[in-house]
Amino acid sequence: MPLRVKFASLWLFLIVFGAIYAKLDTGLFDGKLPLQNPNYQTNGFDVTTGTFGTGTPIESMSGAHWLGTDAIARDTFARIVHGGWVSLIVVVVSAACGVIVGGLLGSLVGFVRGRVETVIMASVDVILAFPALVLLLALVSIFEVRNLFVISAVIGVLSIPAYTRVARANSLAISSREFVTAARAIGTKPSRILMREVIPNVMPTLLSYAMVAAAFVVVVEGSLSFLGLSVQLPTATWGNMINQARRDIKINVAQVLWPSLALSVTVLSLNQVGDFFQQRSAVRGSSL
Amino acid sequence: MLKVVVARLVRLVGTLFAVTFLTFGMTALLPGDPVNAILGVETVRDPAVIAEIRADLGLDNPFIVRYFSWLGDAFTGDLGKSWITDQQVMETITQRLPVTAELAFLSIILALIFAIPIGVLGAYKQGKWQDNASSAGVQVALSVPNFIVGIFLIWLFAVKLGWLPASNWSRPSTDGIWANLKTAIMPASALAMTQMAIFSRLIRSDMVSTLQENYILAARSKGLSDRFILFRHALRPSSLSVMTIVGINFGALLGGTVIIETLFAIPGVGFRLINAISQRDIIVIQGITVFIATVYVVINTIVDLLYAVVDPRIRRR
Lengths: 288, 317
Fold this sequence. Notes:
The complex is a heterodimer of chains A (288) and B (317).
Chain A: H1 3-27, E1 45-46, E2 51-52, H2 76-112, H3 114-128, H4 132-140, H5 148-175, H6 178-185, H7 190-226, H8 238-246, H9 254-287
Antiparallel strand pairs in A: 1-2
Helix pairs in contact in A: 1-2, 1-9, 2-3, 2-5, 2-7, 3-5, 4-5, 5-7, 6-7, 7-8, 7-9, 8-9
Chain B: H1 2-28, H2 34-39, H3 47-57, H4 63-75, H5 89-124, H6 129-143, H7 146-160, H8 172-175, H9 177-210, H10 214-221, H11 226-234, H12 240-264, H13 269-279, H14 282-310, H15 312-315
Helix pairs in contact in B: 1-14, 5-6, 5-9, 5-12, 6-9, 7-9, 7-12, 9-12, 12-13, 12-14, 13-14
């Protein structure tokens, strides 16, 4: 494994770990774990003591706030760690939808061919005929309440066509291989060939595609958040952090830089790991 | 050739039907009564007025009737009227399209200007440090979303250096071409970044295989200079995939302009779409989505046909 892929994996591990840790902190441990509350305004009015907090908005890096504070004096580091959760969920849901629904559908139509294939691939082509982000925007605008469930469901459903196409292409290639012909010749039931021969061979390629698709999904969610059309505030996402901080770019560019770095490095890492797996599964495919 | 054109056109019509149906269906599914959007929440509800509006919008007809009457109107260029600004959607689009188109074309040109030398260099110095450096740069350029590029361009050229305006748009007709370019260059560059990465990667990989052809060897043995061989003999056959991708990427570009126009407050089609979404102005959302999707589908068809013109092997498939 090349060094850059190792670094990329390490970064992705940190983001995922941070996101789960942050969720455990707010969900299970009621904020008792060592991570600041992402929505706590450090200069806010405290009802119990009757005084204002001592924090200041748009602070630079310090021991108390590792990456400084945002425009309303919330801890940027905590918000970035929490922001990973939204990206993580969206990626996981879209990959799950894509691999399970798209993967099965694509494998099936690539194996059985015929009219089913024509109909399903035609509908896939229609959805892919839209510019992805524009279709997503139009769909998202339908929902009045935009929470994590809605956003990840919409992105998940929109992920299915691309996966279907990839799965079908692989399924087509695999279905014409000797071992499938052999299985047919000894009288194996088609459903069994599909489950035991075709799908297991489609999956590795599809999973490596999922990594590359994940990079795209992170960008798409980031863009939605940036436009204010993803998960509603005050939930921290990298995109909405960037959008909020850019208003104060004349005062402090660092507050834009941190979430931008988090987003870009994550996308870069997903691309690296995805390319790596894609090359490996291509090698596996040719030796099959 | 004629057969290819006809088959592709038939498919185009089919896709357009499906695309319009999907968009219309999607927006028709919108929860909440459109009448509420028009009347506002606070108005006193007069059933007669509501009935009149519903009849006016044709909301009492079955879905399929509404679709075909809408499609018929759309076909004649009538995409309906905004409920909020009372402006014709088609008029909105024709006013704003030149802006978006300018951005898109400028960004493609910028991307190609940088991508061709980078790709050619990578192929020429294959495996050397120039190749490694450019492919690392390409990886990074592919990974930074365009709105982030845009923000840091603003930071550098508008905030720090003060050379360019941070937002707004000057029209070439009223402010002159120079003022127009000054407002267009940053958003176009932000859009161009990803394109450039994709293009240069493609040019490099196509070029690598072209350079192994015999006629390149022949050109070399004739004593032609490397530069002449690279740009005159090798570039043209290596630009086929880029040409297709320029077309296919146009869709991504149209999506990208939505964000970049919002970031730079540019009065293009994409910015209007975002406004419409925040105002829940369904007719405008519907109209712009259908318009963008149609443009995208048509461009893809043209690219497909062009490809068949350039590469005769495709015609026989």
